[in-house]
Amino acid sequence: MRIIGFRSVAIKRVYCKRLLHEGPDTIEELLDRHVVKKEKVKSVDDDEEEELLNRRRLTSTRREALSLYRDIIRATRFFTWPDSRGVLWRDLLRENARREFEEAKFETDPEVVTRLVIGGREALESTIDKVVEKQRQQIEKDRNRQR
Fold this sequence. Notes:
Layout: H1 2-21, H2 27-34, H3 44-75, H4 89-103, H5 110-146
Domain Complex 1 LYR protein: 63-125
Pfam family, one: Complex1_LYR
InterPro entries: Complex1_LYR_dom, Complex1_LYR_LYRM7
């Protein structure tokens, strides 16, 4: 039951965050906002404007990436069991997330950053869904044993 509560809180939290920074509601909106569209001829003014737009995109994707990182750290709280070496999965996941974010730290292409953020968000949601399902199965298993 605790996991079900987490899921509803997580959904509310994501919804509130979207309202705070006016983020995209769907992956398509995220792609439309951040994918750089090719233009034919550019003048100096257009280059300056394009640079300004790229900075805005990077600021927005930076915000999205930080939000994703925080969500990953929050989600690792549920991985409390150790691996075969006795190290908690929570710690391993946090180290790997940190390493991957550090590796992509200097990426400046908004399209690549957007792909990374979308991939990370999908992986996180998939992982959370799997953990919730395993927790449900374990609860059902425990209930059946008690009967």
